[in-house]
Amino acid sequence: MLSDKWIIDRTPTTRFPFYTRGNAADVLADPVSPLGWTFCWESGIVLGCRDGFVTFGVFDADDYGTPPETFGCFGGYFYNSLMQARLMGVRMPGASPEAIDAAYFDDRPDVPPYVPEPWHDSPRHAEKLAETQAYIMSAVIHQPVEDQHAIALEIRRNRPDLSKLSNEELVARARTMQPHLVAMFEQHAWASLGASFGPGGILAIAEGLGRAEDGVRMIGAVGNVDSANIATQLWDLSRLVRADASLTQLFDDSFASGTIDSVTAGSMLVKIAGSRFSSALQTFMIDHGGRAPNEWDPAAFSYESRPALAFIQIDRLRRQDDSADPHKAHQRNSAERERLYNEFMELLSGDPETSGAFAASYASSGVWQATRERCKSNNIAAIHEVRVCFDEIGRRMVASGHLGSTEQIYMLLESELDQYLGDPASFKAVLAERFVDHQALALLDPPYIIGMDVPPLSQWPRRDKASTETVKVGDVLKGVACSAGEYTGTARVILDPFDPSGLEAGDILVTLNTDPSWTPLFLASGAVVVNLGAVGSHASIVSRELGIPCVASVADATKKIPDGANITVNGSTGTITINSL
Question: What share of the chain is helix, strand, coil (3-state, %, to 5)?
């Protein structure tokens, strides 16, 4: 029976008292697995985040406790620390906690205001942050991230035959990924913080000129964004299907019932063996095979572990005509971005100081937004190598009768692994019970803000019992303007990127939040609306790359906006107008 506190939950501290789901729901969308949290996060990512904030100049290592309060986990749900981010706004010259909130977190009335404390001000950290800011604004390629990307690809290409490793060897191999996660997330902290500087400068100067909408346009279409490249590669695969009659027939036959299962996907892999399509699919799997919904948790399925996921999205994209081509969209949006930049530089030609700041912001924006997405790819690649090791152990334990399902291997804690390998039978009942509790957590609606008094899980509302008043014709919902432009179309509320049956070309995608697995659906959408998110969240970044309007942080949009309603999305003002129901 589910207790009032999950086995991996944190306890807030007085120094880090508030946590938010803002900019967190598109990292770990579902309750994280116990093994995923303890093995990949507590022993890797959490430590890397601490190191990143320290080397960036925001904190000293001893400002944190043990374990470091870089992130929160409550009810199994992932939370960002408000104080950790806000302190950069306090200590960074020219910044503020409020500006940090606007850049990273949703605009919600329940977010507690920043309360200063004596230890927050630190001239020493301000000096270090000024040096870091100068480096960020120099717009150089951040080489550590590129070096780590090469390492991630090498690890994937040199993966041994896991079926020939013992269970102990598989755990040992998974543990070799933990130091990579520490190092890779240290750089991800740098990239996540650095990616706000350039866009912040662009938006501030554009707003000062009365052209905020053009400012939003100029922080997109930067190119070489890994999360957008997922959709581009899947698009290219879909074009191979459209151009080949035999492939088209294979997809027609395989998807005759509307979708496919793992058996059908396996049959498709056999039938395409040796083809150009198969070679391109293998390249995609090496580049992005670890990506999928909830990809930061090794317990989640991925494109490589469930190839059916890739086939489902390729099938969706092959039905789109060439007007949705992301290559052409990037060319158009990149050209418009460059045109606006030149126009702004002309407008600012009489003000050398502002024009210099604008030029630096523009260049930095492109470099660090792409770097941030590459950091994600690197971390996900390491997590995926953990995944394939534990999936192999899980399959073996099912075959030997020690587990009810492969997924139950992720109900272990890292501290239990050695004992489990020695006596797996003794864990069968407890892992089955945890698995049931974990599924029950998925029915809870996590509070947007967690404070010192964490409500017991028995008091959390349930998703399946929540009720929200729907909108009326003429209502205007307000969110955050994340990708400029205005679009009118049919709203389609989609909650699963691999079951988008109601989404037709030109419809407006309305969903909770998105991660890279959603990106292919953006190619079929005229606009995007998400419950959660900010200017720097996934939905916003990809929408800007593809040049479609996006409004984020629209509270309960998926509940308020009826599926099939005609709505107007204004990504420049951050509004959703209900035209008809």
Answer: 55, 10, 35
Helix (H) and strand (E) counts for the chain?
Answer: 22, 12
Largest interatomic CA distance in the chain: 76
Distance (Å) of CA 157 to CA 79, 153, 385: 33, 6, 11
> What's the CA gap between 355 and 79, in Å, rounded?
38
Quote the pLDDT of residue 107. Answer: 67
DSSP secondary structure of 57-89: TS--GGGS-SS-TTEEEETTEEEEEHHHHHHHH
Instruction: Transcribe 493-561 into DSSP letters.
Output: E-S-TT--TT--TTEEEEES---GGGHHHHTTEEEEEESS--TTSHHHHHHHHHT--EEE--TTHHHHS
Give me 484's structure tokens.
């400029």
Digit-coded pLDDT (tens) for 495-525: 887 776 678 888 999 998 887 778 778 887 8
Query: Which DSSP state fits 43?
Result: I
Percent of the chain with pLDDT over 70: 98
Local confidence band at 538 (pLDDT 50, 70, 90 cut-offs): confident
Neighbours of 307 (CB within 10 A): 19
- Residue 500 has what pLDDT? 65
How far apart CA 6 and CA 360 sit, in angstroms, is 46
Which one-letter DSSP state was computed for residue 1? Answer: -
Angle (CA) 354 56 154, round 5°: 110
pLDDT digits (tens, 9 = 90+) for 43-91: 999 999 999 999 999 999 999 999 999 999 999 999 999 999 999 899 9
Report yes or no: 75 and 460 within 8 Å, Cβ to Cβ: yes
Query: What is the three-class DSSP state of 579?
Result: strand
Spatial distance between the Cα atoms of 36 and 43, rounded to a whole number of angstroms: 10
**Residue 443 DSSP symbol:** T
Task: Give yes or no for a contact between 362 and 211, defined as CB atoms under 8 angstroms apart.
Answer: no
Q: 26, 23, 372: which is closest to 188 by C-alpha? A: 372
Q: Are the C-beta atoms of 140 and 367 separated by less than 8 Å?
A: yes
Q: For position 106, what pLDDT does the model report?
A: 64
The DSSP-derived string for 289-315 is TT-STTTTSTTS--TTT-THHHHHHHH
Say if CB 471 and CB 488 are below 8 A apart: no
State how far the Cα of 391 lies from the Cα of 194, in Å rounded to an integer: 35
Q: How many whole angstroms separate alpha carbon 145 and alpha carbon 375?
A: 6
How far from 268 is each of 280, 283, 292, CA to CA, in Å?
14, 17, 20
pLDDT value at 337 more than 70: yes
- Cis peptide, bond prior to residue 67, ω within 30 of zero: yes
